[in-house]
Specification:
By secondary structure, the chain is α/β, with parallel strands linked by helices. It has helices spanning 17-24, 42-48, 61-70, 88-99, 173-194, 203-220, 227-260; strands at residues 4-10, 30-35, 52-55, 76-81, 84-86, 108-117, 120-122, 132-137, 141-143, 152-154, 158-170. The chain has two domains: 4-170, Spore Coat Polysaccharide Biosynthesis Protein SpsA, Chain A, CATH 3.90.550; 173-260. The strands form two sheets. Strands 1, 2, 3, 4, 5, 6, 7, 8 and 11 form a nine-stranded mixed β-sheet that branches. A two-stranded antiparallel sheet has the order 9-10.
Length: 262
């Protein structure tokens, strides 16, 4: 089997990090955990699982992940968040992949993520499969420079694996809302930094985009199939879309006011 480096960024992840590391122990030639200042049991748990623990003050999502990638030494890298757990089926698929010829035909592999809120899986409404490029040849991939929702960019041959990660994202709906409040602010900053169409910040978009998001995800993409939790998740997500536009409008107003000052 070809050697594999598993790289993870973390801060205060004691809830999930043990399960993340346990799931990769039979695959990884090395496990690198880049910590940005945990004060809980994250480092203790990582040490018990044989991870190489490194420290880096927080640089931002993309920069922190790229720093972790630079520490890997194996020909293949599996980049995970500290709440992403390989299902047994996925672990076996990766093992077979690295032991066979298929990995010679591709440079990267996307992996679907099944998100959990508490103990409940969210399998519809656009939350699944949410496939992300996670497994790739060392030196071939790098995370793009975004403030939030960063993604791995790779110039090469990519395909998608059959099995999925278990994404133990949030304990409850409130934790989902809290996280997306932060993401909404970062998304507004990213829009200002990278440029955007003026219609994105329009009042009409503020009114219609959240409504369309809810309809599309809850009805067209089957969010209703996740029951009451699906309804709450899709309402929360449409509210997140609304907050992104609101924060963008606020930032534009503040910038305009700043330019008018003598």
């Amino acid at each position: 089997m070809q050697a594999l480096s598993v790289v993870i960024i973390a801060q205060d992840e004691e809830r999930t990090i043990g399960r993340v590391l346990e799931a990769v122990k039979d695959l990884a030639s090395e496990i690198i955990l880049l910590d940005s200042g945990s004060t809980d049991r994250t480092l203790e748990i990582a040490g018990l699982h044989g991870a190489k623990i490194k420290h880096q003050d927080w640089l931002g999502y993309a920069a922190q992940k790229n720093m972790a990638l630079s520490m890997a030494s194996s020909p293949w890298i599996l980049s995970l968040d500290a709440d992403e757990i390989l299902s047994p089926e996925l672990a076996e698929e990766i093992k077979q992949l690295l032991s066979g010829d298929l990995c010679e035909n591709f440079d990267g592999f996307k992996i679907a993520r099944l998100m959990f809120v508490g103990d409940a899986a969210i399998a519809h409404g656009g939350f699944y499969p949410d496939a992300q490029l996670r497994l790739f040849r060392r030196g071939m991939g790098r995370f793009n420079d975004r403030l939030v929702h960063e993604s791995l960019q790779l110039n090469g041959r990519v395909t998608t694996l059959k099995n999925h990660l278990l994404h133990l994202s949030y304990r409850d709906i409130q934790e989902f809302k809290n996280a997306h409040e932060k993401y909404a602010r970062l998304s507004a900053q990213e829009a200002l930094r990278s440029g955007f169409k003026s219609s994105k910040a329009s009042y009409l978009n503020l009114l219609l985009h959240p409504l369309w998001t809810f309809f599309y995800r809850y009805i067209c993409r089957g969010g209703f199939l996740d029951g009451e939790l699906g309804l709450k998740m899709n309402l929360a997500y449409s509210h997140y879309v609304r907050k992104k536009i609101l924060y963008l409008r606020e930032a534009l107003t503040e910038n305009a006011a700043a330019r008018q000052k003598p």
